[in-house]
Structures are given as structure tokens and as C-alpha cells.
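One such shown below:
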Amino acid sequence: MTWSGAAGSSPSAQLAFFENGVLENPIDIPYDRDNGPGRNASPAVLIRGGTNFLAAWRTDAPAGRGDAANGSNAFVADEQGNIVKRLYVDGTEKRIQQPEACWDGAQYLVAWQETAYAESRAKPYLLIRASRISSAGDVLAVENLSGSLESPAAEPAIASDGAGTSLIAYEKHSITASDPITIAFRIWKKP
């Protein structure tokens, strides 16, 4: 599932179901200018959990003029593609980048990068945050994982064994420019 488009237009997104490599029952998700995803929403992520799907997308404009729609940055859809609930992955209206998601067997886990600011918005930096979301779309917990002005964090990836243990990997930038970027890991276990 993905969104893309030229200035002033966006196609609808599509949930695509595959069985043994064959496309089955594609469902169009209508474009919603105010609630998103907007034309600057790529990348979008879609994950199945239980009988529902969670979609999350970028809500800041990557470049140029304009802004991405910010009425939500995720939704839960049922198997027919009906939107059950729109939400913000951290429970509050935020601009997010690079969302990634998985299902740990009981709930969705979403990780993303976010721009934070130090000294009255004069100095932006990236940090990694993650949340647990129920299959109905309720935000259960949110955690700041990594990132500061001196040592930003970016580009999360997340995976689960489906039995309650999940791994979040991300870039961890060092305090000094001469030190290389490292890959950091966090393990999340089902509470």
C-alpha cells in the first residue's frame, strides 16, 4: 500500500491481498485531503494484526512548498478495507517520518522518527519514538527510544517473532562527527 501523487492531485491508495502470489480482492481507500494520507505521505506502512490492518504514513512534507495532511497519521481498517478508526500513533497530533510497524501477536508496534527542537526551535534534531497500539486502534503506550541534539537517531526498522518479542533497529549518530554512525537495537517484550 502506498500513496504518491503530483502537486494538486493524489490517487487513492489500495489495500492489496495476495494468496500464493496471486492478487485477490484489491480494495481502494479513498483519498482524504484533511485527514491524510496526503500526497507527501510516502512512505506508508501497512501491517495485518488479528483481523484488522494498521496503516501509518509520513505527515511532514519532505521538501518544497506545502504540507502533508495532518488530521491523522494512521488508521485501522477491517478486512473489507473500511476504516475503523483514525488515530495519531503517539496519541497526539504530531508530524512523523519513516513509520515502520509490526504485529507482536497481540498488538501493533509502531516506530518512527520525529523532528524535535532545542533552544526555541532554533536547532532541529531527529529522535526515535515507538508506541503500542491495540487491534482496535487505541494507543496503549508510547516511549522515546533514542535521540538528542548532540546524538540524533533516525531511520527505524521493526520486526517481531509474533509471540511477544520485537526488535527495533535504528541509526544512532555519534556526538562527534569523526565517529561513524552505528546501528542500535532495542528489544520490546509484551508487557
Notes: Residues 13-189 form a domain with the Neuraminidase fold (CATH 2.120.10.10). The two ends are 30 Å apart (CA to CA).
